[in-house]
């Protein structure tokens, strides 16, 4: 295998215009052709320039990527590409062959080229190869042809790029597309280093940030990944994506990305909600962010006070601007989806008189004592601000939603004061009235939104606003019960409530039983506490250590048998073949029993000789001791494990050792992450190390 060209050089921002726009890359029902055309109109109006076609459930994009498009499908794509050009939007066709491609098979590469040649005939000039969300393992044939998964991907990507004539825009999505996936970290990731070194310089690379859904993207993190990739990345931003949770939708502004990032990036593409119409806010605020000027230009003093970290862009102002524009669409009958009165049929077009749909005579007027006619109130900007606050962003609520949670928590914690004749009782009743008014605001927002003329937007939102209205209703009834207003609510207090009185179904039941459930909740109830104890290892713990080792090695599923994996000295320690050194072994216990261990050999060389294992002499010169740490997944708090390791290292140091190292398999991402966060351990480069093994060490 040979590489066509090496990128080389220092990282530089991409040439050409800043890529900005939308990626349709979620899992779920793809958008319709009409919706995509409407998207192009919005992008042109708001100053965005790119659309990346990558719907995961388009089966010829991903699962059946080899299949050519039928004439009917081709007609649709040609029309879509033409519509994008008409609105000055760059259409990027993405294909995702990573599920089953054999990289070393020339016929597979030819099939990929043929598929993209077909799309090129449709008028498309920009392309993307995606290798995201696939298993990072090569088939036996590829293992013989390529030294790593990264080399295989880069080889095929470079070939396709050159075959297509080196398009001006060509995007590559790596398998390790965020920092959380990099082993042991971004700067030391062999995968990213290979991609950065060997991928042709005209190919841009997609990146989601620190995580798949990144709360924040910092300048430092982008500079770090740019240095490894040797180019500025294009951000594939999942901050508004909701395909992982059918109970949430995100209507907050583009946020927590400083505008100082703009000159350090090649572009930003938002991968928004699955529902098309509610993405108005996500795309509108991204467009506002992209137009911000981090260098030069006037700076808004008021904005600077409001947004201390970014004087050039205010998420709140951008949100208000987006919601104001969205209100016009929601209340307009001229927009797609708006209700229209059907046109009267011309008599000459039909043999029969058309059905009479208009009411004849005077409108109905209620008489004395009768119910007044229901009149729908018009939707307001305050309604949309409330809606956005209730469905804000993945890691935070809007201010009103947060205040409602804080008020309910206070009312619940001080419920004993509700009926007492004291000043505190009046404070309680005052807060209860305020909370009730907030709940009423949600109900009225629901009513007005339900009667908005643009029904297409409503239908995308309806399940979500129904759910929040119901949840607020339960909380409202509970507070009234605490205040002594009427009988306890059947919805809140009953042992056998209606199904709308409890949430989550089977998925919710599973989640509530897991240790991490509620970690992101504003208030944790009951308190999520767990008691752990650390004690010295004894002979009776040998069986438990072996069980934990076997469980963690297999990861709960069928994997490569131990005999086929690279042998480690630490395997002898965990299996009991080698006993740990005296006073250098500890176990971690919780209420269920032993849940972790930390073992050490102060003299690794002597212990390795007993089991006839080779050792690296230069390594042992500075780090003569070996440590082995493992904890079960039910230990969700890293603090107890860190304390246990601290005690172990102290004991090793007391024995006179200069340093300690650990052996890790790359598949054990949990412990790799643990040691990486344990700042004293550093990655050690060694010759002759098996590809699947990582060594980290610390001086004592």
UniProtKB/TrEMBL annotation:
GO BP field: glycoprotein metabolic process
InterPro entries xref list: GH, Glycosyl_Hydrolase_84, O-GlcNAcase_cat
Entry-linked Gene3D superfamilies: 3.40.630.30, Glycosidases, STAT, domain 1
Record bears the keyword Secreted: no
Segments forming domain GH84: 18-294
Record has S-adenosyl-L-methionine as a keyword: no
Domain of life: Eukaryota
Enzyme Commission number(s): 3.2.1.169
PANTHER family: O-GLCNACASE, O-GLCNACASE-LIKE
Protein name: protein O-GlcNAcase
